[in-house]
Every structure is written in structure tokens, then in C-alpha cells.
């Protein structure tokens, strides 16, 4: 790794989502705070001195079995074998591998759990986990199989197996896939390590895979929302919309914080626009539908001049985007607490006399994450739905105020325009609508009824990733179509410039996808280029001077 890379120090109390993204996506290095390391060692010393003798009191998951076998006391000599066997028996995932960025997020989040110093895990295990991140040894973990109850046992068991250097565990080491022990050896690290008392149970207990999916999805959703403001404002300009509905005096009559922030961003984006004026609305677009009596039906005749108001997908954008913004703010609060919490079980609580109590609880239960992701699924689905409706208006001559049907530049019939791109957006919207049904209310008992209520947090968070990716493509379609509309009419509206913010957004779109002014283009390439521009924050960055409050 490049020595100049950012180093993030974890201490169990100050890690944030941006740090997690830097580690998971940008390969920032990570290290353990010296004070946290010392505290971990002190706790471990107490555990080994007081709870690992033959006559030690039973401490759940330390010197006892787990789940329905919690009353079986284990001899000290059997504990390492039990710890290893627990990882082997719990490695029961299936399906496509988790995305590497989510696995990296899960790894640093789990290490930060240990840095809170409630687990009693050995420092060597925490350091090995960080070494894996810093050397690019990333386990291949099946995405499916967790119920989010006693944490994400299956995904974390795969992490534990890789950490041990188990030869059946496969990892990415740079671009190659290797058995874990060989990857460690090539990195100059011990190929294998043994797990001792509490090591495996600490690795497995906690809804950390769910949290990793959630942190990445929530981060991406906020970037997506900024991009969707850009696509909205391009559509407002392309359709020459009435913008007085976004005035702050109007917003003050229903002063939701999110709604007002969105309306402010819209006003900033279209500031000084002459396109969203009555004078611009008087212009008949030469390439659009002709007046009635010249082959155009009354349905397709573009109305000219002043408008009383626009369709809901245009004028109600603050009322739809605002709840998305407020949902994200709420979700960030939930995830911020989760990131710096101990989700292990049991917890070792330090007492006033410098001793410890082992207390069994339920911090591993993923309901907070599951319900937050249900909310995010609904919010992002609705965001995509309103963007798709605007894209549909742009290609429909009955709704586009004079734009040519399908946004075709020349020779309709030979050329087909953007109807197929818009239809794809509708297909993704429908898929999101199916995916956004609540997942946190789905519960079945597991593990011989010891886990009689589950959170389903891992699925809840995992499907949000799909919803966000779908919605990135939906917003990409709106960006593409609105920019095409602006390009088609540019020569006729030279005296009606668009706002400075929307101009920057339009120019940024054209860095990734040129206009279609002749024959139809390979539209997949344009949509995918813009989807990537959204996911890599390029679109959001281009309008950051105008979208400041979120």
C-alpha cells in the first residue's frame, strides 16, 4: 500500500460513515488507537486470570456452549476447539459474494466494535483483522444466509475463517483469489492463527454485515439525492416550468426542514434562469409538434404562454425530496450510534473496583438497522418514481410543451429517440416498488427457538443496495433526457439562458454522454456512463456550490 494513503485510527467512539467509505472504497489504511489497545489488553488479562480456570464461574460463550447449549460448561482445554468449531459450523452462507467494498466496511466496523472494549477479545485478533485490511486480504463471503438476530453469524463466520487462515477460505489478495493461508504467507504474515476463548464468539456476534451494507447504502443515497436535484432542475429548465412554487414564502407556510432545504437548492440552481419565464414559454419549438391543423392533434398541441401550475412531479418535488432528506438525516443518526457501539454478547462491563461483570444482552439484534433500511428503501423508491415520471414527460409530446416526441433530433421513424431509455427507467421503478416492502416485520424463529424473534436486517440492508443502484440508473435516464431536450432547442433559446447551477449540471452530463443530434446512439453506454458519474459523486460535485444544505 502507498505510504501516503490516509490513515484512520479507530478507538471505538469516533469512527464515522465517511471514514468507513474511505477505508472500504479508497483503501485508506487503518490502525488501532494505542489507548484502545492498552484497554483491550487490560480487559483480556482479567478474562484470562479470572474466568478460564476449571473452577471459574460460567460465562456465556467464553467457557460455555452457545444458544440451546448455553448450560454446557466447557473445560479450559476444550475452549479453543469449541471456538474453531463454532466458526466452521456457522460458515453456512450461500449466493453471490458480498461486494468487496461492503466486506471491507464490515471488517473495519467489526474492529471498531472490539475497540469499544466490551468483548474481551485478544488484541492479536484485532490487529490481524486490521492487517487484512491494510494488506488487501479480503474474504469472499456469500451474501445470503443471515437472519440478523444473534448478529450476522454466517457472514462473520466466513470472516473468522479467513482470519484464522483456513485453507478452505478464499480471499482476494489484490486481483487474485487465493486460499487465506497462502494470501497471508505472501503478505509476509503468519499463515494461520488459533482462536482462543471468546475470539470466535466475539467475531461472530453482531449485525455488522447489515451495518456495512447500511452505511454504504445510506452514503450513496445522499449522493444520489444531490444528483436527483440536478436532474430535477434540468427537467425544470427543459420544460420551461413555473418556479414560483419553490419560493421561500411559499415554503414557510409548511416549514418542514427537508422541504425548505430542497426548495432552497432548486432556487439556487435555477437562479437567473430566463428559460423558466413566461417569455420563454411563448416560443414554439420548430422541431416539435406543429399547430393544430398541420397534422397535429389537439392532444399533442403544445400550450404556449403563462401557466397556472405544472404537474405534480415538477412542482411537488420539494414535498417528495424533503422527506427523503429528513429520512437520510434520521438514518445517519441511527447508523452513527451503531458504528460506535458494541454489538457483541456477552459484554464485559468494568466495575468500580476494576473488576468486570459479564452480562448477556441483546445488542447483536439488528432491528435498528433493519427498520432504518426499510425507511431508506421506501424513500429511495419514491425518489426514483418521481424522477421516472419526469423522464416520461420529456419523451411524450403531450406533456413536454413542444419538445419533439421521443426527443428525436432528425428523421423520426428512421430514428427512435429515447423512449427505450425511459421505459428502462420505468422497469427499474417497478422493481424498486416490489423490493421496498418492509423486511423488518418478517420474522421466523431459529436455533431451536433460542432466536425466537429475528430482525432480517441483512436482507433489509442488502436489498436497499439494489434499490439505490436501480435509482442511480433512473436518475441517469432523467439527466440524459433533460440534457438532450436542452441540446435540441439550444439554438432557438439563445436569449433565454438557463440558471448557472443547471448549466454546470448540463455541462457535467455532457462530459460523460454527448448529445444525440443525428442517428440513434448506443444508449446503454450513455446511461451507464451517467450512472457511474452519479455513483462516483461527479454529478453531485458539479453542483456542490448550489446544493449546500445536504
From TrEMBL:
Gene Ontology molecular function: any one: ammonia-lyase activity
Gene3D superfamilies, sorted: Fumarase/aspartase (Central domain), Fumarase/aspartase (N-terminal domain)
InterPro entries assigned to the protein according to its UniProt record, in alphabetical order: Aromatic_Lyase (IPR001106), Fumarase/histidase_N (IPR024083), L-Aspartase-like (IPR008948), Phe/His_NH3-lyase_AS (IPR022313)
Signal peptide residue numbers: none
Keywords: Lyase
Domain of life: Bacteria
PANTHER family per the UniProt record, alphabetical: HISTIDINE AMMONIA-LYASE
Protein name: Histidine ammonia-lyase
Amino acid at each position: 500500500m502507498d505510504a501516503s494513503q490516509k490513515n484512520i485510527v479507530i478507538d471505538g467512539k469516533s469512527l464515522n460513515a465517511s471514514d468507513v467509505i474511505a477505508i472500504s472504497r479508497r483503501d485508506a489504511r487503518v490502525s488501532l488507537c494505542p489507548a484502545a489497545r492498552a484497554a483491550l489488553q487490560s480487559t483480556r488479562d482479567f478474562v484470562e486470570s479470572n474466568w478460564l480456570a476449571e473452577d471459574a464461574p460460567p460465562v456465556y460463550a467464553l467457557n460455555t456452549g452457545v444458544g440451546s447449549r448455553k448450560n454446557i460448561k466447557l473445560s479450559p482445554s476444550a475452549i479453543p476447539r469449541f471456538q474453531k468449531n463454532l466458526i466452521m459450523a456457522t460458515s453456512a452462507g450461500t449466493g453471490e459474494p458480498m461486494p468487496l467494498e461492503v466486506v471491507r466496511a464490515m471488517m473495519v466496523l467489526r474492529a471498531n466494535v472490539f475497540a469499544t472494549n466490551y468483548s474481551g477479545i485478544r488484541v492479536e485478533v484485532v490487529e490481524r483483522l486490521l492487517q487484512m485490511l491494510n494488506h488487501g486480504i479480503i474474504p469472499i463471503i456469500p451474501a445470503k444466509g443471515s437472519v440478523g438476530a444473534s448478529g450476522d453469524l454466517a457472514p462473520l463466520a466466513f470472516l473468522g475463517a479467513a482470519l484464522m487462515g483456513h485453507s478452505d477460505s478464499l480471499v482476494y489478495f489484490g486481483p487474485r483469489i487465493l486460499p487465506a493461508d497462502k494470501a497471508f504467507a505472501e503478505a509476509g504474515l503468519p499463515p494461520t492463527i488459533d482462536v482462543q476463548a471468546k475470539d470466535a464468539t466475539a467475531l461472530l456476534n453482531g449485525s455488522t454485515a447489515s451495518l456495512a451494507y447500511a452505511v454504504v447504502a445510506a452514503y450513496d443515497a445522499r449522493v444520489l439525492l444531490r444528483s436527483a436535484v440536478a436532474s430535477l432542475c434540468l427537467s425544470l429548465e427543459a420544460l420551461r416550468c413555473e418556479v414560483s412554487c419553490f419560493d421561500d414564502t411559499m415554503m414557510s407556510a409548511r416549514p418542514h426542514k427537508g422541504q425548505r432545504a430542497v426548495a432552497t437548492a432548486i432556487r439556487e440552481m435555477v437562479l437567473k434562469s430566463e428559460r423558466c419565464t413566461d417569455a420563454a414559454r411563448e416560443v414554439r419549438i420548430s422541431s416539435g409538434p406543429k399547430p393544430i391543423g398541420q397534422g397535429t392533434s389537439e392532444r399533442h398541441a403544445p400550450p404556449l404562454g403563462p401557466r397556472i401550475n405544472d404537474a405534480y412531479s415538477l412542482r411537488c418535488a420539494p414535498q417528495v425530496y424533503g422527506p427523503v432528506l429528513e429520512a437520510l438525516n434520521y438514518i445517519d443518526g441511527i447508523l452513527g450510534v451503531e458504528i460506535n457501539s458494541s454489538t457483541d454478547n456477552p459484554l464485559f462491563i468494568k466495575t468500580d473496583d476494576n473488576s468486570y461483570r459479564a452480562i448477556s444482552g441483546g445488542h447483536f439484534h439488528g432491528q435498528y438497522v433493519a427498520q432504518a433500511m426499510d425507511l431508506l428503501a421506501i424513500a429511495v423508491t419514491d425518489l426514483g418514481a418521481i424522477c421516472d415520471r419526469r423522464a416520461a414527460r420529456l419523451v411524450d409530446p403531450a406533456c413536454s410543451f413542444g419538445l419533439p416526441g421521443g426527443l428525436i433530433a432528425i428523421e423520426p421513424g428512421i430514428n427512435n429517440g429515447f423512449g427505450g431509455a425511459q421505459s428502462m427507467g420505468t422497469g427499474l421503478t417497478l422493481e424498486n416498488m416490489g423490493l421496498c416492502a418492509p423486511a423488518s416485520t418478517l420474522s421466523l424463529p431459529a436455533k431451536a427457538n433460542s432466536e425466537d424473534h429475528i430482525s432480517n436486517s441483512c436482507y433489509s440492508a442488502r436489498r436497499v443496495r439494489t434499490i439505490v443502484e436501480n435509482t442511480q440508473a433512473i436518475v441517469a435516464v432523467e439527466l440524459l433526457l433533460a440534457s438532450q431536450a436542452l441540446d435540441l432547442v439550444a439554438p432557438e433559446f439563445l436569449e433565454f439562458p438557463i440558471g448557472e447551477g443547471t448549466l454546470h449540471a448540463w455541462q457535467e452530463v455532457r462530459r460523460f454522454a454527448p448529445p444525440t443530434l443525428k442517428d440513434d446512439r448506443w444508449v446503454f453506454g450513455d446511461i451507464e456512463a451517467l450512472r457511474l458519474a452519479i455513483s462516483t459523486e461527479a454529478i453531485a460535485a458539479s453542483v456542490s456550490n448550489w446544493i449546500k444544505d445536504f
